[in-house]
Amino acid sequence: MFDQFWPYFAVLSGAISGTSAILEKRLLRSQHALAYTTSISAIIALFSLMLIPLANFSMSLLDILIIYFYSLTLTISYWFTARLFKHGNISIVSPIYKTLPILFVALFAFFFLSEALTPLGYGLIIILVICAYLMINETNKVKESVNYKHNYKFLIIFDALVVSIGIILLKYLLQNVDLLAIIVIVNIFTLINLLIIMLRRGKNYIILLKQDFKTYSKSISLIGVITFLYRIVFYITLNMNMVSLIVPIANVTTIIITVLIGGEIFREGNKSKKLLLALIMIISAYFLTTLA
Question: By 3-state DSSP, what share of the chain in percent is helix, strand and coil, each rounded to 5?
């Protein structure tokens, strides 16, 4: 009924994601990434329980297994993204992190979901990718923290790949399983996964989780609600059209918000270049929506 409005829903989901990313960056300055991710996931899982009376849990064992695999991609991507935002510039992390899934999803959707765009569509996606890459401020180092011991670029690529696999799994699930049931089950699974990781890390991490939640409960609750809302809107949007069209629109919106607004908040500079590239991306994204 509302499928013709998919571009607006895609923009809305991207805008919510960008807003959440900016708030995350602020909070992660003083929080441990794993503790933060687990706290947010607890809020999201709690809100998901309210959907139980409305959800249809009729599904096969295979569907449940796929939902669990999807929860693993959420667990990894959400935790790793928190680490990326904690240690890196948001106006650098966001373009790379949100650009790569555009490419990966278009490729995976072609092979696994039989989604094929026109040559113009793929050309517009390439323009979006190039603009997002150029939007990175080359004068800044990708890695902010000299104490960060992991390979930062590898983490971004791996995170983007995991996100893309998760989106393909989600698109498949939405064709076979009730949307609300997916939200409830996957968010509970994700919380369980993170709690297991916390327990395996030792008692100190559990203590850290309790302390962080007590100290930053309002901020954590706010971001949890926003993230929960984002997931609902994004899941609804994926039901409306091809994932290879929706992801570019949503991710470009997130990139523009995090780079322009987030870059300004965190004083990351180079505004004129970013504004020009943002304009090109908006125009390209508009023409991409006309291909549906």
Answer: 80, 0, 20
Give the start-end residues of each E strand in 3-72. none
Phi-psi region of 290 (alpha: psi -120 to 50; beta: other; left: phi over 0): alpha
Tokens at residue 113, please?
């979901």
At 217, the amino acid letter reads S
**7 vs 51: CA distance, rounded Å:** 26
Greater confidence (148 vs 206) lies with 206
Contact 238, 170 (CB under 8 A): yes
Of 184, 185, 196, nearest to 34 by C-alpha is: 196
pLDDT digit string (tens) for 76-116? 988 888 777 766 665 566 666 677 788 889 889 988 888 88
CA dist., res. 144 & res. 154, Å (int): 15
Contact 56, 181 (CB under 8 A): yes
Token output for 216:
């930053």
Query: What is the Cα–Cα distance from 233 to 253, expressed in whole angstroms?
Result: 14
Q: Would you state the pLDDT for residue 270? A: 60
Q: Which of 252, 62, 247, 254 is nearest to 165 (CA)?
A: 247
Sign of CA dihedral 151, 152, 153, 154: positive
Q: Say which residues have a Cβ less than 8 Å from residue 114's Cβ, sequence separation at least 6.
A: none
In angstroms, rounded to a whole number, what is the distance separating the alpha carbons of residues 75 and 77?
6
Q: What's the number of CA atoms in the CB half-sphere (13 Å) around residue 204? A: 2
Q: What angle do CA 198, 228, 203 make, to 5 degrees?
A: 10
pLDDT higher than 60, residue 130 = yes
- Residue 93 CB burial class (10 angstroms; 0-12, 13-18, ≥19): buried
Tokens 């517009």, residue? Answer: 124
